[in-house]
Design goal:
By secondary structure, the chain is an alpha+beta fold. The chain is 34% helix and 20% strand. Helix 4 packs antiparallel against helix 5 and helix 5 packs parallel to helix 7. The longest helix is centred in the first third of the chain and has 27 residues. The protein is globular and about 55 Å long.
């Protein structure tokens, strides 16, 4: 069963199989028409197959009639079940596997007919996929995966993190930038949390599924427990457990290792309260009130100010580039790309010598895409590994130490290349990087590598995938997603850093 909203805002349930994921837009009014053919495969109409069978067997005597009717009904039931399973695709959702479409052809890993999610944690990629399969759009999948990462990767992101994002609507061709607003200080060295307000704002404007449905998976993971993966275990081993016990420690105070089970019931309670909040501000209150009690502080005079605004754009011969506005690194990114494309060659200093110590915040990235060309790129950061290292007992949240305004957003520069503002069916490429010494240069290098690919882009996507051979400057993660020829493509550099799931 899937959850849908009608044009009046009412929620209804019913078995729905989406042919193409398209972002909900009340002005379009065409989604029902696109679904009609598929729905006829899985939802019986007012004519029932039993009616036809009954007419055929009424002429047979007694027991024979009942036997033949039973056999025929069994055959019809098996046939409908087979067609339904065939239309839904691969129910296993195994990482990196493309479900075979109705025509029977298959794809290489990372290529899907409908949509996909890619993130640093396998369980969060799986959650994003499940939200897509439940009838959600890329915003639902991305927000759900981001909340999942807030639970299972507290070293890199969380409800105390700062978020930036870029959403491209494949239906309208419009790109929207998401920001948490200026970094604000809750107390010396402690950042004011804004993640819940920011993600709730994004979902309110562009999501399709009910807000509580997005929080069910993350809150269940926090309450019932999750397995520590190698990324979290490595961060714990490097950081130590000071300030993190008992959340991420054994009873003897040693850090949890890979495969150990961790729980965070206080965070589960926060997510449960946030699920009931009708507005973005009230979603934030679910965390802020118990947090202030923990710290013995009064409510700040100015709260978080997340916003959605038109993306910063640059027209280039290859299409339209969209990114986030200042104070992110988006303007720097576009300036570098414009200079490189104008000169016809990349600037000589795209890969600078690596500094001895990291100069950009520790962060997390994820991306969701559907085959219609809708893309959501999300970046978040606590600044340092485990942020301030201050764990709030009542909330299970680690607060950020990202409070220095001048450099607070130099790590954020998601990028979307859309071939034409007038052609909503044109190819779309999304790039988002994190953790590198200079993410704007990394993203510039990746895009130039894509544009330097074969002129025959259909052949390029079929045989090479999205810029698979692009090198990345320094230590970091680069996610690449694209919509091409009614397929969704996802990949990462390094190739094993992130997992993807689609259908």
């Amino acid at each position: 069963m899937a959850v849908r909203r009608d044009h009046g805002g009412q929620v209804s349930t019913g078995p729905v199989l989406y042919q193409k994921l398209a972002l909900w837009d009340p002005s379009l009014g065409s989604e029902e028409e696109e679904e009609t053919e598929t729905l006829e495969l899985v939802i019986p109409n007012s004519w029932s197959p039993q009616d036809s069978l009954r007419r055929k067997v009424d002429r047979l005597p007694g027991a024979w009639a009942r036997l033949v009717a039973a056999l025929l009904l069994l055959a019809v039931g098996l046939s409908l079940a087979a067609r339904q399973l065939h239309a839904r695709g691969d129910p296993t959702g195994s990482p990196g596997s493309g479900a075979a479409p109705p025509s029977g052809h298959s794809h290489t890993p990372g290529v899907y007919h409908r949509g996909a999610t890619i993130s640093p944690a396998a369980m969060c990629s799986h959650l994003g996929r499940e939200l897509l399969a439940a009838g959600g759009n890329v915003v639902d999948a991305g927000v759900g995966a981001a909340l999942c990462l807030a639970v299972v990767h507290p070293h890199a992101t969380g409800l105390g993190a700062t978020f930036w994002g870029l959403f491209h609507n494949g239906t309208s061709g419009r790109s929207t930038a998401l920001t948490s607003g200026p970094a604000r200080t809750l107390a010396p060295g402690l950042g004011l949390p804004s993640a819940l307000q920011t993600l709730r704002l994004l979902h309110t404007h562009f999501g399709r599924l009910p807000w509580p449905q997005l929080l069910t998976g993350p809150s269940t993971l926090a309450q019932e427990g999750f397995l520590v993966d190698t990324a979290l275990a490595g961060a714990l081993a490097a950081q130590g457990t000071e300030g993190l016990c008992p959340l991420l420690c054994h009873s003897d105070g040693t850090p949890l290792g890979p495969g150990a089970r961790a729980t965070n019931p206080s965070l589960a309670a926060v997510l449960h309260r946030a699920a009931l909040a009708p507005t973005p501000d009230l979603a934030g209150e679910a965390l802020l009130r118990p947090l202030l009690r923990d710290l013995g502080l009064q409510a700040p005079s100015v709260g978080p100010t997340p916003s959605l605004e038109p993306a910063l754009q640059l027209a280039v011969p290859q299409g339209v580039l969209s990114t986030t506005r200042s104070p992110s690194a988006g303007p720097e990114l576009l300036a570098m790309l414009q200079a490189a494309l104008h000169s016809g060659r990349p600037p000589p200093d795209l890969c600078l010598p690596l500094p001895q110590t990291p100069v950009t915040p520790v962060g997390s990235v994820l991306a969701t895409i559907d085959s219609s060309g809708s893309v959501l790129l999300l970046i978040s950061s606590l600044n340092s590994s485990f942020g301030s290292g201050h764990l709030s007992p009542s909330t299970g949240v680690l607060l950020s130490d990202l409070v220095a305004a001048p450099a607070a957003s130099a790590w954020a520069c998601p990028l979307v290349l859309h071939s034409s503002l007038d052609d909503t069916d044109a190819d779309v490429l999304g790039l988002v990087a994190s953790g590198a010494p200079d993410v704007a240069r990394v993203t510039t290098r990746a895009l130039l590598g894509h544009l330097a690919g074969p002129q025959n882009q259909a052949q390029h996507w079929q045989h090479q995938g999205p810029t698979q051979n692009t090198s990345i400057c320094g230590q970091g993660i680069l996610l690449q997603v694209a919509a091409h020829a009614e397929h969704a493509h996802v990949s990462s550099i390094p190739s094993g850093c992130c997992t993807f799931q689609g259908f």
